[in-house]
Amino acid sequence: MKPEQQRGFSLIEVMVAVAIIAVGLLGLAKVDAMSISEGHVSSVRSVVAMDVSSLAAAMHSNATFWADTSNAPATVQMAAQGKTLSVSNPSTLSAAAVPSGACQNSVCTPVQMAAADLATFGTALYQAVPLGTVTITCNTVPAPVSCSIAVSWQESSVAINGSILNAASGNSSVLQTYSMMVQP
User: Fold this and answer.
1) If you ran DSSP here, which 8-state letter would residue 52 be given?
2) CA 175 to chain CA mean position, Å
3) pLDDT tens for residues 115-171?
4) Per the domain annotation, does 2 fall within a domain?
5) What is the 3-state composition of the chain as percent helix, strand, coil, each rounded to the nearest 5?
């Protein structure tokens, strides 16, 4: 009689196969997490780009204020306060300068229109980047006036490995910046 040959897998072979599959699935999970994170970063960046483009269009339509070398401020600073980005400098463009109705139902001066445009921009941008800051820098010399709109915010994302993490704080929060040049 012939001894029968064993059929099937040994326990060690099964454990090695399970370990290999587990490592592969962990890699796929990491790729999936990174994909979701980068998709969020991309969508926030797109919203910021659209909001900045909207402000640029508003600056073009109010060229009386922004293109006038005697009117246009050298720098406009905006930062998160409450549920909007409010203008901290110059105060002539703060929300207090906007008449009731936000220039929709009344005739506004160019300064009031610029303040209303910045208030609308700040409210829309706050929804995308609640802790964002905005700096609008206008060069009035030489003419024509050109302005730079820069938006900065902290973005949390999934890191590939520990070397990408911010060494100082141990997290993967990265300063994101979007900027656009405008000639009103």
Assistant:
1) H
2) 9
3) 888 888 988 888 888 888 999 998 877 778 889 999 999 887 666 555 555 444 445
4) no
5) 45, 20, 35
Helices (H) and strands (E) in the chain, counts: 3, 5
Parallel, antiparallel or unpaired: strands 133-139 and 146-156: antiparallel
Q: What is the DSSP letter of 109?
A: -
**How far is Cα of residue 72 from the mean position of the Cα atoms in its chain?**
26
In a domain, 155, yes or no: yes
Quote the CA–CA distance of 155 and 45 in Å, as a whole number: 10
Query: Domain span at residue 170?
Result: 11-182
Tokens of 21: 């599959």
- Asked whether residue 6 is domain-assigned, the answer is no
**Cα distances (angstroms) measured from residue 61 to each of 117, 129, 184:** 10, 25, 8
Strands 146-156 and 84-89: unpaired
The rounded distance, in Å, linking the Cα atoms of 44 and 38 is 10
Is residue 173 one of the residues assigned to a domain?
yes
- How many domains are there within the chain? 1
